[in-house]
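Input:
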Amino acid sequence: MRKFLFLSLSLLLIAAMAVACGAPSAPAPSAPAAGEQPAQAEQPAVAAPAASAGRVQIRWFVGLGTGSSEDQIPAQEAVIKRFNESQDRIELVAEFVPNASARDVLATQIASGSGPDIVGPVGWGGSNAFYGQYLDLTPLIEADGYDLTQFNPALVNMYQTEEGAQAGLPFAVFPAAVFYQTEMFDEAGLNYPPQKYGDKYIMPDGSEVDWNWDTLTELAKILTVDANGADATMPEFDATKIVQYGFIFQWQTHPNYIGTYLGGANSLLAPDGRTAQIPEGWLNGWKWWHSGMWGDQPFIPTGPIIQSPEFGSGNAFSSGKIAMAVVPSWYTCCIADAGQSWDLAVMPTDASGKVNSRIDADTFRILKDTKHPEEAFEVLKFLIGEGSLDLLAVYGGMPARTDDFDEWLATKQQQFPWVTNWDAISAGLSYPDVPSAEAYVPNWSQVWDRVSALDSLMVNEKNLDLDAEAAKLQADLQAIFDAAQ
Amino acid sequence: MSVISKAASPPGPRTRTGGSRALARREAMWGYLFISPFILGLLAFTLIPTVATFVMSFTNFNLSGAGTQFVGVSNYQRLFRDPQVWSSLLVTVRFAAIALPVGLILPFGLAVLLNSESLRAKGLFRTLFYFPYIVPFVAAIFVWGALLNSETGWINQFLRWVGVANPPNWLNSTVWIYPALVILGLWGIGNAMLIFLASLQGVPTELYDAAKIDGAGWWGQMFNVTLPMISPVIFYNLTLSLIGLFQYFTVPLVLNQGTGAPGGATMFYNLYLYKTFFTYQNMAYGATMAWLLFVIILAVTLVLFQTAKYWVYYAAETR
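Output:
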């Protein structure tokens, strides 16, 4: 009896300890209408298994940029398999984390001391969110004798920090272009947008005009159609029954991007490094965009439209209901539902004839807290070398290595055989945004979020005083920059 | 003369102090042993982290890799200069002004209806009203996000069908987002409703009989019998609702990916605290914000408890 009691008590104590360690210290509140439930954290799609015997495990974190879509994972896993089978010293494992939560997940991992070894592919934005946490590759490059001449020197220099450290190596470049639906142009009796930079656009009446944002606006209005078939230039056009829109910035609605495309590369931080500024060209670009959504002749879908299932639940161009989209070339990762009649055109100029475009550039970065820098560098070399073309095929990027361009082009032509003008992408390499729309500023993540708040206002509020909002933004940014000093 | 050894003779009554003290000690020991897992958990997962965040709030600890240094009260000074802190608190208060009354009155109203003598199939209704509470909350948020879509959501489609020409832009308007969040939270009222129902069923019926005899109608009974008798439960729900509102986080995080959209209207204080920790990676400042939240919630709770003596009636109390 005593033994039974002792056993029962011991089991009870162990169970109680397990419950106490998992339970909150206060009783769970009831859930009135405004009540709270415990947050449910998103888990990575693939968790890292234990390392195989004798191999050094290198963890690769995917999700800060592209790469975590379901249709991209198999190709990456194939690259991982190929790497692991090619040698027996290193075991590469990947964690695929949805982009929406990747920054938070990675920050949690780093804070808890369990950060990955390599992150990527990651562009400037994702990299800036973890500014100062990347390994300087210079000693590894020198020790390995890695040949940097295979890359354009300008691209190599892009990844040098202000302190002179080489924090990354070129991998993929994604110039922006105009994606357009040829069938919609055919239906409207319009010529397609220009295929080469410098070409004019030919209007339906045969006149030649500059291919600029005014021309694009005019075309977009003609291509915006309501349920009765009237377009936005017609008096009988019903803006409440639009079934097809003329234009969208596809996943490029952050005001930094729109400002760059329409107003030219600039920064919200003045050259003195301390003062917040709102470039006039950016403010004018934001006004053009807001007017395009909410004006008397709308031709750009608003926020609710973009989020609706009928318009692709956020991926509007792929809904097949948008005539033109401006987006970097990584968008080919996610364009499967857009049909087989889209093609590529060059970016329009501003009123002065200058092309303001963007180039996203992705790479893989090694975190400075990695316990295996040499092995991580071996993986990095493979990902940007032997494995790069397979990865670029799913990421939608152009190879930074010029020797690989022809092979990349062949892959794209096989993937999208109806597209005739890949040159629009490659020609875009001549029009980078310097400084990048995602360039580092102090407290970058907080600045990015604050500017994003303006984005959500613009896509959702018709009656918006943009001048007042810009002034408020500038004041808030100044407070953020001041806090960083 | 027979000698009765001490050993053979029955023991005399024990002295109260000696025996009961040992018994009390043994009972206390078992008590502490049983609550030790909870104490250990409390120490490891609550008290020690609480002290750690307090210490952290006086440093500049972040993820950027620069060394951690003691910075005095500069984080607290920054707290008062940070416009986003006050903006987020205002967002929280603005939401609470709508959500709190709805979160108390609606479940109470449903409980009153369910407690009605003339209602048939009470068990069925109780189940139906409680059922949404067990739906996983994150899944419910996604469902409501689709329902509340201003263009294609069922709610606005219904409103258009009944003749509302411009139904609200629920999730994307800085004005309508708060009612939208309250509507979204309605799925969670089942739990509060059950608590109210249980308290209503505990009100002695003779009080209603006496009130009827005195001529009290329905409203009279409600305000003079029902509400005073269930005031402890109202107080309990009010306290926990307020705490929950100040910690409101999951819905804006899932609904708008923590962006605070539209236009910062859902950047609740707890969400901003989370982003400060994990997105902006400023752990020390986040710890400071956490302590401000603690002070605010403590102050509100103390005020509630102080005012409770004026309106909460405990039947066991004697005045």
